[in-house]
Amino acid sequence: MKSPISFEFYPPKTDEQRSQLHKTAGRLKPHAPEYVSVTFGAGGSTLSYTPETVRGLRDTHAIDVAPHISCVGGTRAEIHALLDTYAQLGVRRLVALRGDMPSGMARAGEFRHAADLVRYVRETFGDRFHIEVACYPEIHPQADDALIDLRHFKAKVDAGADGAITQYFYNADAYFRFVEDARHAGVTIPITAGIMPIANFTQLRRFSEACGAEIPRWVEKRMRAFGDDAGAVRAFATDLVAGLCERLAEGGAPALHFYTLNLAKPTLAVLERLR
Q1: On the chain, which terminus has fewer CB atoms closer than 10 Å, C or N?
Q2: Which positions ≥6 away from 225 have C-beta within 8 Å?
Q3: Domains contained in the chain, number
Q4: pLDDT digits over 152-181, tens only?
């Protein structure tokens, strides 16, 4: 499989987490990612951690880093200052998101939607940044229906997005149908497939319930059947995700973006299978 790949990391907050991240980045770098992205905490909880992580990954591993930037909870001035920081760091790519409002937070921020943020970046910085946005083959959990969700995606593209990264999924047909629908709606930008290697199935189930990603019933049944056999679970998970990647690549997915959770082993197991 020769599809371009990229990895997502989250910003560490402790010395132990920083050590883990750099170890993971070092193990994944030989697979020549096009870039790595760094997430942005809800409501700016990682406002300082994300730029620090971007700088650390670039300086230590000499890789192209794309920070996530979220409009929730941030003022126009704060977001402009953050963009200035990234421009000065030599960042060339951003992942622009609306972000999720954390519980107890009263301020939504000056940008209500990701399309507003994309438009602002374009109007203020021109073509300085390559902008990726999010999209949802199985529909955003807060969207009223699939057509409304598709219109929201199209609005981000019309605002100036260069590419899109999907939420993770385990049903390739959902991705292919979404891409087909997007093309019919006039979306022409590349739509990268988001891939979640399976490290902990209980954790995955919790993530999936929160973000609206569907775990096929037969996968859940198979995982339960393995019980405490960790080796069987790992082997099945690797086969499942590698098979998904192969089908996506064969079906024309332009690239694969791996959600690593700052762990190397699950992603490496899949990549080794794809050689």
Answers
A1: C
A2: none
A3: 1
A4: 999 999 999 999 999 999 999 999 999 999
Active site residue 52: no
Its pTM stands at 0.93
pLDDT digits (tens, 9 = 90+) for 110-146: 788 899 999 999 999 999 999 999 999 998 888 778 8
| Phi, psi (rounded to 5 degrees) for 214 | -95, 130
Element (H, E) at 15: helix 15-28
Domain that holds residue 204: 5-274
d(CA 36, CA 93): 10
DSSP string computed for 87-121: HHHT--EEEEE--PPPTT-----S--SHHHHHHHH
Q: How many CA atoms lie within 13 A of 109 on its CB side?
A: 27
Among 50, 54, 96, residue whose Cα is nearest residue 72: 96
Burial letters 150-181, b for 16+ CB under 10 A, else e: bebbbbbbebbbbbbbbbbbbbbebbbebbeb
End-to-end CA distance of the chain: 6
| CATH code (residue 168) | 3.20.20.220
Distance of CA 206 to the CA centre of its chain: 17
Can you point out the beta strands (E) in 177-233? 191-195
Question: Cα(237)–Cα(230) distance, rounded to whole angstroms?
Answer: 10
Are 133 and 182 in contact, with CB atoms under 8 Å apart? Answer: no
Catalytic residue among 8, 16, 214, 272: 8
